Amino acid sequence: MRQTRIKLVANTRPIGRVLLACMVLGFASLIAAGIAAAWLTGRNQEHVRWVNHTYEVELAIAQASIAIEQGETPRRGYLITRAPIYLDTYLANRAKQPATLARVSTLTADNPRQRASYARLVALVADLQRQRDLTVSLVREGRGREAIALFFAETDAKRMMTIRRLAAHMAQEERRLLKIRDADQVRSVRAFYIVLGIAGLILLVVAILSVTTVMRYTRDLTRSRDSLNTLNETLEEQVAERTADLSLANDEIQRFAYIVSHDLRSPLVNVMGFTAELAATVAPLEELLERAEATAPEIVTEDARLAVREDLPEAVGFIRTSTQKMDRLINAILKLSREGRRVIAPERLDVAEIVANICGSMQHIIDDRGATVSVEGTIPGLVSDRLAIEQILSNLIENATKYLKPGRPGVITVSGHEERGRVVLSVADNGRGIDTRDHARVFDLFRRSGAQDQPGEGIGLAHVRALAYRLGGTIDLASELGEGATFRLNLPKTLTVQDPKA
């Protein structure tokens, strides 16, 4: 199941990257299309404005041309008939011309070519208007013959033709600009459609790639789900088989440890017995040596004297020390073996009460070593094996009192808290600490850390770890040299023991 999960995670990562890349490309395409649409909208608005401007210019030029030409008819009528209505019409028309020309000037102010044409137009109109005003003035003064003679002599028609051509030229200039702007608009629309097509193509590719990726991922999920279903169908059977195998292996290990310990004890008992006999022979030999020195000193050599009084007692002492240590090790191994065979009996425990009982049973040791043990805070309730918890805590507390830092009173605190449905018990001290390189090895059998100035065989923490495992928990260590140590026991809040017959 773990391999299947790892495979799913491994497959998910590249698929996630592909989908993320597709999303980025899709959003980038949409953003590009939006920017292109906004740009084209702006261009369209600009083009519409310039089209309207062209029409306004053409209309203004046409209105100015009409106003200029309309001024000629009332003037001629007034010259012929001298009727006031023609004069009034002429004067009204003359008053409108500056406004129409000003309109043309305003609309063509941004075009230098149009400005030049406008300047010529204004000059021509001004010249024409002066000629017309002169003839009208002569008629009003009663000099009609002079006005008519001047009318026939003037080049009014030629001026009008020039004005008409100039107005047509200005209108043609606006149409030329309109064509250029139309061409720009066509190019803008073409560019927009190109960008839109590219964005659409990218979106299509992204969609195809996304669908393909999702389909492949779905196919992998289906295949993995089928594998998980197959695995789950046989999981209980596999767990039962492996549990049975582990139980058999554990029983074999325990029997092996018991047999080895028993077989080691037999020769050890013999060695201890013969060592006692050797020790018993030391006193008669020394007594015999003393009589020999008193009666016949010449037969007593220095080697014999050293052998009886120093070498033999020292050798017997070494043998006794070694056999005693071997006896303690064998007893520890037998204890571990018996603990593995002991039936776990979970019950509701008050950890603070257990700590108090442990401290009461070893109070003389705590006092002699100058330490204090206290419970910090409220320890959560726990359902577990009482004997195992007592052995674990007593071992940790005793170790904490044993490895104090010289010159500093020992302070040992026991605390606990809940963490993700489990109970974490901590035993902290301010002792001499444990080197970080030895954090793992101190839990191994017969392994110790630091100065070997305290009695022990290196079995206690190994026993603690074995008990923690049997209770469904773990134990770890946080410590630095000179800064004390904290052992953390992580246990299930409620220990569930499977029925071995199930």
Automatic annotation (TrEMBL):
Outline the extent of the Histidine kinase domain: 259-495
Which InterPro entries does this entry report, sorted A to Z? BphY/WalK/GraS-like, CHASE3, HATPase_C_sf, HATPase_dom, His_kinase_dom, HisK_dim/P_dom, HisK_dim/P_sf, Sig_transdc_His_kin-like_C
Name the catalysed reactions.
ATP + protein L-histidine = ADP + protein N-phospho-L-histidine
Q: Which GO terms describe its biological process?
A: osmosensory signaling via phosphorelay pathway
For this UniProt record, give its keywords in alphabetical order, as a comma-separated list.
Coiled coil, Kinase, Membrane, Phosphoprotein, Transferase, Transmembrane, Transmembrane helix
Which chain positions lie within coiled-coil regions? 218-252
Q: Which Pfam families match?
A: CHASE3 (PF05227), HATPase_c (PF02518), HisKA (PF00512)
Cross-referenced PROSITE patterns, in alphabetical order? HIS_KIN (PS50109)
User: Which class of enzymes does this protein belong to?
Assistant: transferase
This entry's Gene Ontology molecular function terms read: phosphorelay response regulator activity; phosphorelay sensor kinase activity; protein kinase activator activity
Transmembrane parts of this sequence? 20-40, 191-215
What EC number(s) would the UniProt record show? 2.7.13.3
Q: What is this protein called?
A: histidine kinase
Its source organism is Sphingomonas ginsenosidivorax
